[in-house]
Write a structure and sequence with these properties.
Residues 791-839 form the RING-type domain. This protein is an alpha+beta fold and 854 residues long. The chain is built from 29 helices and 33 strands. The longest helix is centred in the C-terminal third of the chain and has 41 residues, at 739-779.
Length: 854
């Protein structure tokens, strides 16, 4: 029977573990570890009954009446044999120098850990609780309380004697007590009371909610959050009480303080202990569950929950099931929760185990993320908190992340993460590359390889290039373009490409890539030859960049065939490197390309290629007739006879007309227009350009028997030749199209000429009058005569040195000045005087404007 129960318990524990794993996707807020060392040794022979925590040490009481002082790691530092029976409670003051102990056989001891003062007393009933004054070390605070059937306050009098007083009795055993500042809170069978030690008044009574629970099996848990906030946990109920000062007007016979319940809510399980955590609560719960198989109730693992209190309910932040030793046999009263306020450490005490819970730090957070394979989040957390983490290194987390991605088959993501994680560590880069090679994923890591700082061994880059060359020509070409040529041994890769070209000699991708490799190797000749073969657009850039003009002198035809426009521009821009003569000679067998080159040369400069103008006549005639006439007009070095011969041979009428007119044979040109082109408008236009009366006469004679030509002449001749000359020669009875309109136009042109003449006459008259007035104003102005002026005849100063002497000066409008005696005497026929200088130079008469006398 016992074995069956044991097996059932084990299966329950396993099922609880499984359910806990299912719920563990949410990260716990606390981490746990057993308090070992001396504690393990103690609990092998004894059982823990109570415990209290100080910032510097721990005090553990056992069922065999021992009290052990432990350091934070659980090592025994001191041992006290207090009683042969169970220690019910241990109390320490805030200084940690005084300790109070009570036991099941009624013994009470209060003594100094580092002094000789002691209090020993044995009562006739079990003493369940003890609490020493928080400031017991002070002489004015030598007080403590004990509780069994009644609550007693012990105080040391001035004679060093202890006197006791009853604070409360008659409501059953006192089972819990907490002292904070001037307030003492305790719980008995009926509820919780608070006593003000200063005013010696009990200020509240908080009744127990669930009176059906046995108070000895489900004891009350008390906890002071601060000096005025008490947290009560009893059964499944939690109450948060706030001690407040009563207003003076409300005092009367009431205590000066009162208690207000600020929050009250129910929990899912029975409460075994409470502790504050900032504005939240840590709750130790006793759990009972029903087996699905036997439908029997059993004790499950206790839970440690962090909850956020609200006014009438609470919010669960985290919940952890604790696997403490012997939890199957424990009851609610067997668990205790103690805490260290300074370090947020929580001690879960059970008869056979002590577990320490502490807030998780960043290292713990990273541990959990790694355990859940959330590597990216772990890496981010480590980077954010790299100054605070102690057990982890960013690099180690990153490498684990890369390995995880590789295992999942996410090779591209793993390769991309290498950039950030491996950074400038060349050795790690090379290690990862070989690892990717082993799994056949070199292509995945190739885009992310470092290319500058750091630079890996050439073998690494060559290995990846060979991988692409075997399976992906385009990818190989991309790497060659993107990677600097000094990353790998260029000659090795060139040879590998050439080997592949033996199998596929026309592969354009490989040929282009080989040309790029030749360029990196400064073997520009071979690169240029490949580019020309491929007719690649970069050929011109290659020539310019590396000054390869000496290499293309025999490849001009190839360049022109590829892109004649770019080739011609390049050749013309670099005449100093490849002469015009050399280009023309190379293109001798390709006259159409020769024409393109010479045409563009002529457009740039009409004189540079003058020696080739005669050749260009034939080229234009053969390949580009529309530009022949503009060429003949713009060229001053073109032999006209040769041009005329070619144009006549090819029957180019317009060009022949132009050449005849340019050679002075205007009549023949006009005749050709009339006879060959039959274009009266062109003939009239030609006559207008030449402005020769004989041409107009020839045009009239030719047109006189052709009515359409007469119409054209009548419409256009009016402004150049007198229309009467044409009209008189028209035969009577000849029918001329649109004659009336033509005559009307002649009259309109005549009227227009008359109007223009009259308008011009008015303008001339107005301008003449304006200028005359301006001249008159100018001549009316005075002329400055001073010592610097000279006589234009005798060249002596115009003014005498002796101002007292009489003198006479004549100044003309042209500003020339003479002594009067230096001018010739005017004749009777022409009394006006004129400036001899201006008259001699035909500048006009320049009559005198001023005569000065003294």
């Amino acid at each position: 029977m016992a074995e069956a129960e044991e097996q059932e318990t084990e299966s329950l524990e396993e099922s609880t573990d499984e359910s806990e794993e299912e719920e563990s996707e949410e990260e716990p807020k606390l981490k746990y570890e057993r308090l070992s060392n001396g504690v393990t040794e103690i609990l092998q022979k004894d059982a823990a009954s109570c415990m209290t925590v100080h910032d510097k040490f721990l005090a553990l009481g056992t069922h065999y009446g021992k009290v052990y002082l432990l350091d934070i790691q659980g090592n025994i530092t001191q041992k006290f044999d207090v009683s042969p029976v169970k220690i019910n409670q241990i109390s320490l003051d805030e200084s940690g120098e005084h300790m109070g102990v009570c036991s099941e056989d009624g013994k009470v001891q209060v003594f100094g850990l580092y002094s000789g003062e002691e209090f020993h007393e044995t009562f006739d009933c079990p003493i369940k609780i003890i609490a020493v004054h928080p400031h017991f070390v002070r002489s004015s605070c030598k007080q403590f309380v004990t509780g069994g059937k009644k609550l007693l306050l012990f105080e040391r009098s001035w004679m060093s004697r202890w006197k006791s007083s009853v604070l409360h009795e008659g409501e059953g055993n006192i089972r819990s007590v907490k002292w904070r500042g001037h307030l003492i809170a305790w719980a008995n069978n009926m509820g919780v009371k608070i006593f003000d030690i200063t005013s010696k008044q009990r200020i509240t009574n908080v009744p127990r909610d669930d009176i059906s629970l046995r108070p000895d099996m489900y004891p009350c848990s008390l906890c002071w959050k601060d000096s005025v906030t008490l947290i009560i946990g009893w059964g499944t109920s939690v109450k948060i009480c706030s001690v407040k000062e009563r207003h003076a007007s409300e005092l009367r016979d009431l205590p000066s303080r009162y208690v207000e319940i600020v929050s009250q809510f129910e929990t899912e399980f029975y409460i075994s202990g409470l502790a504050p955590l900032c504005d939240q609560l840590v709750v130790l719960s006793f759990v009972k569950e029903v087996s699905e198989k036997t439908e029997r109730e059993y004790c499950a693992r206790p839970r440690l929950d962090i909850i956020q209190p609200l006014s009438e309910t609470c919010e669960e932040i985290s919940s952890d099931a604790l696997t403490v030793r012997g939890f199957q046999e424990n009851e609610c009263r067997d668990y205790h929760l103690e805490y260290s306020e300074g370090e947020s450490l929580f001690y879960i005490v059970s008869p056979r185990d002590v577990v320490v819970a502490k807030e998780r730090d960043q290292d713990d957070h990273i541990d959990w993320l790694l355990e859940k394979k959330k590597y990216e989040e772990a890496l981010m957390a480590a980077e954010i908190s790299q100054k605070n983490i102690k057990r982890h290194k960013i690099l180690d987390i990153g490498l684990a992340y890369i390995n995880h991605l590789v295992e999942k088959g996410e090779y591209d993501i793993a390769a991309r993460k290498c950039q950030k994680i491996l950074g400038k560590n060349a050795a790690l880069w090379e290690y990862e590359v070989y690892k990717f090679k082993e799994i056949g994923q070199l292509k995945a890591i190739s885009p992310y390889l470092p290319r500058g700082d750091p630079v890996l061994k050439p073998l690494i880059y060559e290995m990846i290039l060979h991988e692409f060359l075997e399976s992906d020509y385009e990818g190989f070409a991309t790497l060659i373009r993107e990677w600097p040529g000094d990353l790998y041994n260029n000659s090795v890769i060139v040879q590998a490409v050439r080997d592949h070209l033996k199998k596929d000699s026309q592969n354009r991708t490989l040929l282009k890539t080989l040309a790029e490799l030749y360029t990196y190797d400064k073997n520009y000749g071979n690169a240029l030859e490949i580019y020309l073969t491929l007719r690649h657009k970069d050929v011109f850039q290659l020539i310019h960049k590396h000054n390869l003009f000496s290499s293309i002198k025999d490849k001009i035809v190839l360049l022109m065939d590829f892109d004649s426009e770019k080739a011609v521009d390049m050749l013309l821009d670099n005449e100093d490197k490849i002469s015009i003569k050399k280009v023309v000679e190379e293109l001798e067998d390709r006259p159409e390309l020769q024409h393109v080159y010479l045409h563009k040369l002529f457009k740039r400069d009409h004189h540079k290629g003058q020696r080739y103008h005669e050749k260009q006549i034939s080229l234009y005639a053969e390949y580009d007739r529309p530009n022949l006439l503009p060429f003949l007009r713009d060229s001053t070095h073109c032999p006209l006879e040769k041009a005329l011969e070619i144009c006549q041979q090819r029957n180019f009428v317009e060009e022949t007309v132009y050449l005849l007119s340019r050679m002075g044979n205007s009549r023949s040109a006009l005749k050709m227009i009339m006879e060959e082109l039959h274009d009266v408008d062109k003939a009239i236009e030609f006559a207008k350009e030449q402005d020769d009366g004989e041409l107009w006469e020839d045009l009239i004679l030719y047109s006189i028997d052709k009515p359409p030509f007469i119409t054209g002449l009548l419409n256009n001749i009016g402004t150049h030749v007198d229309p009467i000359l044409l009209i008189h020669r028209i035969k009577e009875g000849m029918e001329i199209p649109n004659l009336r309109d033509s005559l009307v136009k002649i009259l309109q042109d005549y009227n227009l000429q008359i109007l223009l003449r009259e308008g011009c006459k008015k303008i001339l008259v107005a301008d003449s009058l304006s200028l005359l007035k301006k001249m008159h104003r100018t001549q009316m102005k005075g002329v400055l005569v001073d010592e610097e002026n000279i006589c234009e005849s005798c060249l002596s100063p115009i003014l005498p040195s002796d101002a007292a002497k009489p003198f006479s000066v004549v100044a003309f409008h042209c500003r020339h000045m003479f002594h009067k005696e230096c001018l010739p005497v005017p004749s009777m026929n022409s009394p006006a005087q004129f400036c001899g200088i201006c008259s001699a130079k035909h500048r006009g008469p320049g009559s005198a404007i001023l005569e000065m006398k003294k």
